[in-house]
Amino acid sequence: MNTDLKKIIKKVPLKKRLDADEGLALFRKADLLTLGELANGVRKRLHPKRLVTFIVDRNINYTNICVNKCRFCAFYREADSPEAYLLPKDVIFRKIEETIAQGGTQILMQGGVHPDLGIDYFEDLFSSIKARFTIQIHSLSPAEITFIAKKAELSIEGTLRRLKASGLDSIPGGGAEILVDRVRKKVSPNKIRWRQWADVMTEARKLGMPASATMMFGSLETDREIIEHLIRLRTVQDATHGFTAFIPWTYQPGNTELGGRSATAVEYLKVLALSRIMLDNFKNIQASWVTQGAKIAQVALEFGANDFGSTMIEENVVAAAGVTFRMTRQEIVNLIQDAGYVPAQRDTVYNILKRESKLQS
Amino acid sequence: MSLEKIKEKVFSNKRLTRKDGLALFRSNDLLALGRMASHVARKKNGNHVYFVRNMHINPTNICVNRCKFCAFSRSKGEPGAYEMSIEDILDKARGAEKGVREFHIVSGLHPDLPFEWYLDMLRALKRESPNIHLKAFTAVEIDYLSKLSGLGLTDTLIRLKEAGLGSLPGGGAEIFNTAVRNTLCAEKISGDRWLEVIEAVHRAGLKSNATMLYGHIETAEHRVDHLIKLRALQDRTGGFQAFIPLAFQPHNTEIEKSTYTTGFDDLKTLAISRLMLDNFDHIKAYWVMLGEKVAQVSLSFGVDDLDGTVVEERIAKAAGGTTDGSMTKDDIVHLIKQAGRAPVERDTVYNIVKVWK
């Protein structure tokens, strides 16, 4: 091991922040176990009680019609496609009822970016949900919010204010992909650029709305661009402290225009660990069983993750790419316990709702 | 309990005891297990990760044993039962891609075929593909064939070897513990008999692998005892090439358990196998049962072999194996490279065919 790498490795347990070059050197030169050990150390420091959380929620994809047509996406349809849909309100309500019946506390509504849906549609939708149900509306990624603002000729702030007043509680971090425009121009040329993504999150924070942050890697980005993504998130977080969690996942090439291979499990665990090491101002890192499956998601608990994500009663986007892992709440609880942790159901902002304290034999 | 003492032993090449093995299974410190197992694997095989280009041939699923964990076997006349003629087997063999170096041939214990049929099959395959290694028959089949032949173990093995048998896979070991075995597969040969047969195999100059079926009703004690019995035999014969822990596949079997093994358990079992079996050169992750992802990650947990391209695997698939049963050479090479290791194509007996990068 060269001395540079040794120096970088020594900084991590001392809580010294790594810069981009250090992050890159660590990512490229350290082996999987070294990254795991460093990330596990950070996780233990931030979560000393061996608690691993999860949320009970449902993804509701209200439409698959999308003006962005990202090349990595297998989910969207043209408006005139026979498979295009827009869910009627009563269907959305029924899905919410089922979610609550299963102990769910959150719905994650994301669409495509439907060209005809304006702010009135969402205000009506959110307020009618809130009139009927007690549930966290964790919905609309920055790409959707930016489109709604533009269509309504409103500022981002004005748009968020109105959506919030109608019932929107928090913003999911989807659509971040890689927060570097060189990559975005290639994989999602019609989608908002990185600055707009960050602006929505910054404005949301000013209004007291929490948000999560994500990264989809394994498409066309370089290692350095992964690091750039993390540093940009860290910088926004320094200014806002609005992100509840970071969730990296891998590009799923099935049925997409972009095609290619998906990142392997070792690459996933390395990026996850690197994220835990670099994002010193993020409290929570989520494992992605939806893209990695139950086995690797469990192993991810030793590589920096302290959250198992969601039970995801419904998931459509990754499934469209041909990857369909399913998990029940009980399976999630069992896996967390099997790894020697205490499972706990949480809400959107990581308050603990219910601890499953009894360890299985 | 702290792993410090065990770590010291591992790093100073001392053999681990049964108690050490149990302590390792009790630990949830996955990364520490990986660190120790990687150390041993590196010492034995450096940066190399081996694979072989092979094809599985399962001549019949008709079996006089009906093991409860098996979703593959059928009784004669039962729907889904099949048997291949020697001509069928040759047809299949002719379909092997160029570059395939091994046929992995295991079957049910067919009630009617005579011993001569097995010799004919081997001879026919050798005539058809003289350069392809025949790795065939588990210890369970060898025991059965020795009864069919009436020749005793040694002479049965000599006849098979003369007909073209190159080496043996490691199947049928399951778990050696008698009580577990009586529950899982009461009709199958005992653990002691398995070891006796394999000892005869090694004495006859044939190499074999060894396996352990885990993740069903066995305990950590049963696993550790299993490993120690294999280690003791290896001390005597040196005939084992690789150890392959096999993750129980829960579907379509008679065992009351509906879950797959966890990623933690898979990696722990592989790592602990690497640590306990200090006299085995290779630990193999059988990706057909583990999934490609766990198999790749296991390269940091003591594994140095990813088995093969495994064209047309049927046994794990029958039990809900989650992979589609084959990977191309490029897929395997990619997995190994992305894990930062050097892919090495080998033949069945670990001669190097090609080293990448």
Question: Could you outline the blueprint of secondary structure elements for this entry?
Answer:
The complex is a heterodimer of chains A (361) and B (357).
Chain A: H1 3-11, H2 20-29, H3 32-46, E1 51-55, E2 57-60, H4 89-101, E3 106-109, H5 119-132, E4 136-137, H6 142-152, H7 156-166, H8 181-187, H9 194-206, E5 211-217, H10 223-240, E6 243-250, H11 265-278, E7 284-285, H12 289-299, E8 307-310, H13 317-320, H14 329-338, E9 342-346, E10 352-355
Parallel strand pairs in A: 1-8, 1-9, 2-3, 3-4, 5-6, 6-7
Antiparallel strand pairs in A: 9-10
Helix pairs in contact in A: 1-2, 2-10, 3-11, 5-7, 6-7, 6-9, 9-10
Chain B: H1 4-11, H2 18-26, H3 30-45, E1 48-52, E2 54-57, H4 86-94, E3 102-105, H5 115-128, E4 133-136, H6 139-149, H7 153-163, E5 167-168, H8 178-185, H9 191-203, E6 207-214, H10 220-237, E7 240-247, H11 263-276, E8 282-283, H12 287-290, H13 292-297, E9 305-308, H14 315-318, H15 329-338, E10 342-346, E11 352-355
Helix pairs in contact in B: 2-10, 3-11, 4-5, 6-7, 6-9, 9-10
Keywords:
heterodimer, A: 361 residues, four-stranded mixed β-sheet, 10 strands, 44% helix, globular, B: four-stranded parallel β-sheet
Structure write-up:
- The complex is a heterodimer of chains A (361) and B (357).
- In chain A, 44% of the residues lie in helices and 12% in strands.
- Chain A is built from 14 helices and 10 strands.
- Chain A has helices at residues 3-11, 20-29, 32-46, 89-101, 119-132, 142-152, 156-166, 181-187, 194-206, 223-240, 265-278, 289-299, 317-320, 329-338; strands spanning 51-55, 57-60, 106-109, 136-137, 211-217, 243-250, 284-285, 307-310, 342-346, 352-355.
- Chain A has a 4-stranded mixed sheet with strand order 8-1-9-10.
- The mean pLDDT of chain A is 95.
- In chain B, 43% of the residues lie in helices and 14% in strands.
- In chain B, strands 9-1-10-11 form a 4-stranded mixed sheet, with helices on one face.
- Chain B is globular, with a radius of gyration of 19 Å.
- The chains are: A alpha/beta (361), B alpha/beta (357).
- Chain A binds chain B through residues 31-33, 36-37, 40, 261, 263-267, 269, 292-299, 302, 331, 334-335, 338-340, and chain B through 28, 30-31, 34-35, 38, 259-260, 262-267, 290-294, 296-297, 299-300, 334-335, 338-340.
